[in-house]
Amino acid sequence: MSEPSQARLAGHPNRLPRPKGELEALEAAWERPKGWRIVTAVNNTVVGYFYVGTAVLFFLLAGILALLMRLQLAVPSNTFLSPETYNQIFTMHGTVMMFLFAVPVVEAMGILLLPQMLGARDLPFPRLSAFAFWAYFVGGLIFFGTLFYDVAPSGGWFMYPPLTGAQYSPGLGADFWLLGIGFIEISAIAGAIELIVGVLRTRAPGMTLDRMPMFAWTMLIFAAMIAFAFPAVILATMLLELERAFGWPFFMPQKGGDALLWQHLFWFFGHPEVYIIFLPAAGMVSMIVPTMARTPLVGYRMIVVALIATGFFSFGLWVHHMFTTGIPALSLSFFSAASMAVAIPSGIQVFAWIATIAAGRMQLATPSLFVLGFLFIFTLGGLTGVMVAMVPFDWQVHDTYFVVAHFHYVLVGGMVFPLFGAFYYWAPAFSRRPLSERLGKVTFALMFVGFNVAFFPMHISGLMGMPRRVYTYPAVAEWGVLNMISTVGAFLFATGVLVFLLDLVRNLRPALSDPAGDVWKGASLEWMHNHVYGPRSVPLVTSRDPLWDQPGLSEQSKEGRHYLPGTVTGQRETIITSPIEAVPEALQRLPGDGWPPLLGAVFTAGFFMLLTVKYVMLAFVSGALALLMILVWMWSSDPAPLPRAEIGHGIKVSTYLSGPRSHSWWAMVVLLVVAGSLYLSFVFSYLFLWTVSPQVWPKPGQMPPSWWPILAATLLAASSGLILLAGRFLPSRNGVAFIGAIAVAVLLLGGSLGADVLSHWRAGLRPDADAHGALAYMASFLQFQLVLTLVVMAGFAIARSLAGMLNLRRRVVFDNLVLLWHYTVAQGLFGLLLVHGFPRIA
Amino acid sequence: MSAPQTRSLADLLWLLVGPVVWFLHLVVLYGAEALICTPPVGSGRAMMWMGAAATIAALGALAMLAAVSIRRVQDAPEEQTDATFLRKTTLLLALLSAIGVIWSALPLALVPVCASAGG
């Protein structure tokens, strides 16, 4: 039932006069906090502004670091920066650009743009977005601040051990990287959950998957890729931090570890990361090109195919960062082949854009210039990418400036140019004034010329053998001339960014209502008359380009002639629609502004940072406060069901969903995907280290007696059974049995974990003895994290049931507990099988 | 007016089947290489057979997926544009995945199997 039948279209738009006070009530519900209290705003538009602004700040900071490096490298044997400072600066430049600029800025653009583009009032978990932003803001600033105290990491943005192990990096720098970046990854995952559920469940009615704006497709795939890729690096940071702090030898070859394990885990994240930041940028291009060419996007379906394929293929490329590590030739060839295969979907997109440009008449405004610049630079980067995908060529240029040139062409071309195009394109949708076309063109010219002057010569200096990550170089060959040209180019590029900043100061006036609006005559919903609450009324979408094909839509929406023209419950609300056909299913009440997400994030950051500087007690106090804030926030979520609500046009929808139809259930499923992905990375690590050092694995006779794991497994299974039973007691009349079942289940779960750890300890296994011991305890450590989460969630569910806020109907808290519980039990059973079973058969 | 019947998320997940087959094929090749090419097995012949079997299985699965998608496109009522959209996209992804599978398997024929990096 995807096509709106005539019956559903009838009555659109609603021509009846709107009741008095409807608009005023809507605006009152969405009123933003005044003055400095704006920091308590829980709304994706406001948080989106903060988020984009902070990401741009980190772009500038990391850019300044780049200029310092270029100054140092301008002439041979320069002494402007000391070697240690240079190492810190190149490490921070890469780390900040990738983790504090590139990923956050595209996530931020998603959080800012998607509600408007999808016709939603807001995405489903605005507090999660606020939490993600503040965690990133506080964590990022502290992380950057380490530079000023000379404790910044200096082992490169990829942090390879053994250089970053305790022996060669004894200071705090590496710990700041591991805990700081691990923490910021968690914030990225929180944002990704919001984006996935938002794109699938809060689209305007009628916006079926095949009518979804391309940017939304790319954000969906982007967020899914984060859910699969980031856990690998989170696991890697955990392993390295445990090795540094407690001597668990995951990466020490003398104890059966392997430094290559880090490279596998890091690049299993790191390569998809390139596409994680490229795909949303491609999505921005796919929005800008049709508007500028005044014609629908050519090859919509082929682009969707290309996006999904790129998303997958990018996970099969990680070994191409490791071509020189002595991996067997056949393995290298598999990944070399996959590296070339990814050129196919990338090529499909490039040709689709070129075809769209050819099909229409391209208006050469600033956004178009940036798109053209992107096509030129990114294609060059793609070509050198195919070159380095060839193993023999890569052996020649590995660790030279050729690679530096290649990835800057890909990353700056593929992501920074589209992003600047996007800033110019979407500024009128969010600012009272558009940015200046004149200054925009100057910005583009300086950035484009500056970029090529800076990075093209690096291909040559690389081919001439100049290695990367060196703080200076001797006056040989033409290295000096080429480096001087690169430095001049870098400053030209920076001048372009300065002109952009000038433009922002002169023209950007962020607005929560009445922005400059549709200056480009765009096709998608963000160009309607929008407000902080999105459209006044949510339109019925019947086309892929609604504003082109549904005349008068924007005016009708503004006059309240479509769905949800006011507020039904007096609170903030948005429509939850089905994932494929976008049929209205429910009215979700959204939370208002408040302190808990902000304070929760500050205290969470405090926990990680205090732990880094080894104030353990203070760290745990901060962690407890963070937990308290999150519990305060959770307490007011899951409001009581209300009667069915009419959202207009005679459609009545539920105000409460539970089980698989609930958006909250979906968020939990995404979280389970993240947890499962992290665990799979662990299983890979276990098997990988076994193939490297089978000699440290115990003989069957040295294993704990088999009744230990059988006991642990029985306890796990029994706890799952009790949770199922608790579900049967859920009717409030049997509250005692419900609470009892959950409490006993918690004890069984904890008992199972204790039995497992005890069995290893009694068998004489120690985590710091060898790689096998470290991995066996790591399995328990990962299980411990989940058990701890479940203890908190179980206590929360018990408290809700005592407060009469959990019953057969109002049950989302319990449903989510059940999901995580069964996952934890499944992971625990698998862990027992792996850790106790595998050494017996290997 | 009640909401019309909606399709479940499973329909969306069909999109991912082709690429998942491609990924599993790569994992099997890479894992087999790690296990079969190192002592005590160390057999290039065993690796060839394993690779060929995995490739045929993957291509067979993709062909089945394509056949099912084609049938479902033909069966779908004409007005269901987004249903045919999903199935045609599934079909194209199966095709692209098949190219990826063949591409990943080519090294078995072109590169000395179970040789070291320097060799």
Could you characterize the architecture of this molecule?
- The complex is a heterodimer of chains A (842) and B (119).
- Chain A has 842 residues and is mostly helical.
- Chain A has helices at 6-9, 22-29, 44-73, 83-118, 126-145, 173-201, 214-246, 259-293, 300-313, 329-341, 343-359, 366-389, 391-397, 401-430, 437-463, 479-507, 546-549, 553-558, 596-612, 616-635, 663-692, 707-728, 735-762, 771-802, 812-841, and strands at residues 530-531, 534-535, 572-577, 584-590, 645-646, 652-653.
- In chain A, a hairpin with a 5-residue loop joins strand 5 (645-646) and strand 6.
- In chain A, helix 5 runs parallel beside helix 19 (596-612), helix 19 (596-612) packs antiparallel against helix 20 and helix 22 packs antiparallel against helix 23 (735-762).
- The radius of gyration of chain A is 27 Å and the shape is globular.
- Chain B has one domain.
- In chain B, 72% of the residues lie in helices and 0% in strands.
- Chain B contains four helices and no strands.
- Chain B has helices at 10-13, 17-36, 44-75, 81-110.
- Classes of the chains: A mainly alpha (842), B mainly alpha (119).
- Chains A and B meet through helix 9, helix 10 and strand 6 of A and helix 2 and helix 4 of B.
Map the helices and strands.
The complex is a heterodimer of chains A (842) and B (119).
Chain A lengths: L5 H4 L12 H8 L14 H30 L9 H36 L7 H20 L27 H29 L12 H33 L12 H35 L6 H14 L15 H13 L1 H17 L6 H24 L1 H7 L3 H30 L6 H27 L15 H29 L22 E2 L2 E2 L10 H4 L3 H6 L13 E6 L6 E7 L5 H17 L3 H20 L9 E2 L5 E2 L9 H30 L14 H22 L6 H28 L8 H32 L9 H30 L1
Chain B lengths: L9 H4 L3 H20 L7 H32 L5 H30 L9
The succession of helices and strands of chain B, N to C, reads HHHH
Largest interface: A-B, 52 and 54 residues
**Count of DSSP E strands of chain B?**
0
Overall shape of chain B:
elongated
Q: How much beta of chain A, percentage-wise?
A: under 5%
Range of strand content of chain B: under 5%
Helix content of chain B: over 70%
Structural class of chain A: mainly alpha
Which bin fits the share of residues in helices of chain A?
55-70%
Number of domains of chain B: 1
Q: Stretches of chain B where pLDDT falls below 50 for ≥5 residues?
A: none
- Calculate Rg of chain A over CA atoms: 27 Å
**Measured distance between first and last alpha carbons of chain A:** 54 Å
